[in-house]
Design brief:
This protein has helices at about 1-5, 20-30, 35-60, 65-75, 80-85, 95-110, 115-120, 125-130, 145-155, 160-175, 180-185, 215-230, 250-260, 280-285, 310-315, 340-345, 360-365, 380-395, 400-415, 420-440; strands at about 185-195, 195-200, 240-245, 265-270, 290-295, 325-330, 350, 355, 370-375. The protein is of the alpha/beta class and about 450 residues long.
Length: about 450
């Protein structure tokens, strides 16, 4: 195996601690006779444990070795894979090196572990090549990544040579992208070192879609129209969703990402204390072949907080132009984002019927930088009742309408008043009671 790995050029820059690199070194040590059988067996079992952990994290099944190799190919961000992501596998000298690497990977797909197993008296490799998980129903894993890896792995198993292997992998790069941005929908900032930002995928993002949000049709249409223009490469505006709590502002943005993911839309969630790193975030994603929404939830500032100045500079007003593949979407319970005080109103100039406050202008100018402003207000009593009945139908709750609404009205009095969130919480409560009754029966 180590001889195969030594032939990798484009894909050869793998960490020494990776499963593949470790197995390659084990095969070299076994051939050289430089370690005992017990030492080699312990090292093999360590890598099998790591492989099983990866498989559990991503819900892999069947041939775990093939799934792992496929995952490496999908996750490898190198000049060749990034070029394929943007323009496809055009003719060029680099294709020769890529085909050579893919020939090596195909050999790894077909690698026979039998001699290693016989020498060490183990059978773990044949087990992981026909692996059946006990149950994946209760596991939390990124189903989107899992499906992509297993589908491509099955296609690569059927290739007859490195040319077909090349076509499969580069086709995937063209259709879905490469690395974490190709595999995942949403991200957070894990760390920032100098100007380098490390992103952490959000593996279990809510699968909500816009039809799950009852009502607010005008608001949803404004958001869809703006986002559609964005993913189609037309001009679009930064969006601020503001209004009462529990009305579906955050849900709308998550639903937008789910619905436009297959058209290249990705989301990066950022918190207020990270605004100082916004320029570094933008620099790192501006040349990728995706459309990014930088998402700020529950955005508001107290009068002593100055992080909004970083945000203002990024949205508009900075020296560097914001790239076309980036928009900022924010939610807030405040229309003007920054707390306004009576002291601000005292900072006035009066003359010839002109009233101007520098402090107020400074604070209001942030909200004015969002060209798409969408207001979400609490539903009326009738709209709340319609939400409850609609959600009850979805969850199969068969209580008479009068009984259900009477209980819902009692619930909202004790749980924060009328809102879509309150309606959903009430239905969760009722559904849980019904499930408990069925279990007792």
């Amino acid at each position: 195996m180590y001889r195969i790995l030594s032939r990798l050029l484009i894909y050869g820059d793998m960490p020494h601690s990776s499963i593949l690199t470790e197995l390659g070194d084990i095969s070299r040590q076994m051939e050289a006779g430089s370690q005992t059988k017990e030492e080699l067996t312990a090292r093999v079992f360590t890598q099998i444990r790591h492989l099983l952990q990866v498989s559990t994290d991503y819900g892999f099944d069947d041939n775990l070795w093939h799934n792992y190799l496929t995952f490496l190919l999908i996750a490898s961000e190198n000049p060749f894979s990034l070029t394929c992501e943007k323009v496809g596998a055009n003719d060029g000298s680099v294709n020769h090196f890529a085909r050579s690497d893919f020939a090596a990977f195909r050999e790894l797909f077909l690698y026979d572990f039998t001699p290693m197993e016989n020498k060490l008296d183990i059978d773990c490799f044949r087990r992981i090549c026909h692996y059946r998980a006990i149950s994946k129903k209760e596991l939390m894993y990124n189903k989107n990544v899992s499906e992509k890896v297993r589908t491509l792995s099955a296609s690569l198993e059927k290739t007859r040579d490195e040319n077909e292997f090349f076509d499969c992998v580069t086709g995937f790069y063209r259709d879905y992208g490469v690395g974490m941005f190709g595999l995942n929908k949403a991200f957070r900032i894990a760390s920032v070192t100098g100007s380098r930002v490390e992103f952490c995928p959000i593996n279990n993002m809510d699968t909500v879609v816009l039809s799950d949000l009852i009502g607010y049709e005008a608001q949803k249409k404004l958001l869809v129209d703006n986002t559609l223009a964005f993913v189609e490469g037309r001009r679009a505006n930064n969006a601020l969703l503001y209004g009462d709590s529990g009305t579906g502002k955050s849900t709308s943005i998550k639903a937008i990402v789910n619905e436009f993911y297959d058209r290249g839309l990705r989301m990066i969630e950022i918190y207020k204390h990270q605004f100082k790193d916004l320029s570094n975030v933008i620099a790192q994603i501006k040349n990728r072949n995706y459309r990014f929404i930088i998402y700020m939830d529950d955005l508001s500032f107290e009068d002593f907080e100055i992080e909004y100045k970083f945000l203002k500079a990024v949205i508009e007003g900075g020296v560097e132009t914001k790239p076309d593949n980036i928009l900022i979407y924010a939610t807030s319970n405040r229309r003007h984002l920054i707390k306004e005080t009576w002291k601000d109103r005292d900072d006035m100039e009066h003359g010839d019927d002109i009233h101007r406050s520098d402090t107020l202008e400074e604070k209001l100018s942030l909200a004015n930088r969002f060209g798409c402003m969408i207001c979400y207000i609490k539903p009326s009593r009738q709209e709340f009742n319609e939400m409850v009945l609609s959600l009850a139908r979805r969850h199969g709750i068969a209580l008479p309408h009068e009984t259900l609404l009477a209980e819902a009205n009692k619930w909202e009095i004790r749980h924060g008043g009328i809102s879509g969130r309150t309606a959903q919480q009430f239905i969760n409560y009722m559904a849980g009671r019904e499930e408990g009754s069925v279990n007792e029966a």
